[in-house]
Amino acid sequence: MNLVLFGPPGAGKGTQAKVLAERHGVPHISTGDIFRAALRQGTPLGLDAKRFMDAGQLVPDAVVCGMVRERLRERDAERGYVLDGFPRTIAQAVAFDEMLSADGSSIGKVISVEVADEELVRRLTGRRSCPVCGAAYHVESAPPKVAGACDACGSALVQREDDSEGVVRKRLEVYNAQTRPVAAYYQDRGVLQRIDGSGSIPDVLDRIEKALEDGGR
Ligand code: AP5
């Protein structure tokens, strides 16, 4: 399965991508997670990306594309992947096409998860994440069993620095200006399927699976 999960910040891409990747036996490749892991390790990539992430801006295309190119060459991605958070500019989409054609492959399915702006703000400002295993929660809609602690590994949950309301609104602005046009790019090529991302997490998952069955590659 070669799937791109597309959508605004807070649409639920990460939540759904984790489950889909496990179910379908392919890696979940999240560019945001790669940057956060690099930052935890204190690498130059992580420190450089942090400046953009904290401001709600996109990391420069050349940095992101080089990183994704390397990641897709890893052995586990030979079976396919669920990409989450890439591509998010037209330049990234074009570079992605070039990466795929260099490997004799082509774009699989792009599923756009659509959610109203105010719900995105609610989801992101209420999100808590595990800094150790990356699991995501929401204080109201997906709370951990024990308040403030990760169900999977027991670590103390944190709020991402870019989940404050001011930065969330900036991220939505950047999404509308730079990322939304990527949906039209894929629509024109007949690979985009839009699904309603509102409602419960299992309901959204069902919609994605149905979209995959509908001629999914
Ligand atoms: P990234 O980490 O990719 O963030 P994002 O795309 O902004 O997406 P999020 O992780 O915030 O949201 P999500 O859609 O995954 O939602 P989630 O499932 O967590 O990127 C961060 C930054 O890195 C960017 O701003 C940029 O600086 C940089 N970057 C990354 N990729 C880049 C690229 N390609 N180019 C340039 N820069 C890049 O869910 C959110 C919350 O909602 C959770 O609390 C969850 O529990 C809850 N939730 C999920 N589904 C539901 C539901 N159905 N109902 C109720 N609550 C729900």
Keywords:
two-stranded antiparallel ribbon, 8 helices, Rossmann fold, 217 residues, 5-stranded parallel sheet, binds BIS(adenosine)-5'-pentaphosphate, single chain, globular, alpha/beta
Structure report:
The protein is of the alpha/beta class. It has a single domain (2-115, 170-213), classed as Rossmann fold (3-Layer(aba) Sandwich). It has helices at 13-24, 31-40, 44-54, 61-72, 90-102, 117-125, 165-188, 201-213, and strands at residues 2-6, 28-30, 81-84, 109-114, 127-129, 136-138, 192-196. A five-stranded parallel β-sheet has the order 2-3-1-4-7, with helices on both faces. It has a two-stranded antiparallel sheet with strand order 5-6. The radius of gyration is 16 Å and the shape is globular. The site of BIS(adenosine)-5'-pentaphosphate has 36 residues, from helix 1, helix 2, helix 3, helix 6 and strand 6.
In angstroms, what is the radius of gyration? Answer: 16 Å
Low-confidence stretches: none
Residue share in helix: 40-55%
Global structural class = alpha/beta
Largest sheet: 5 strands, parallel
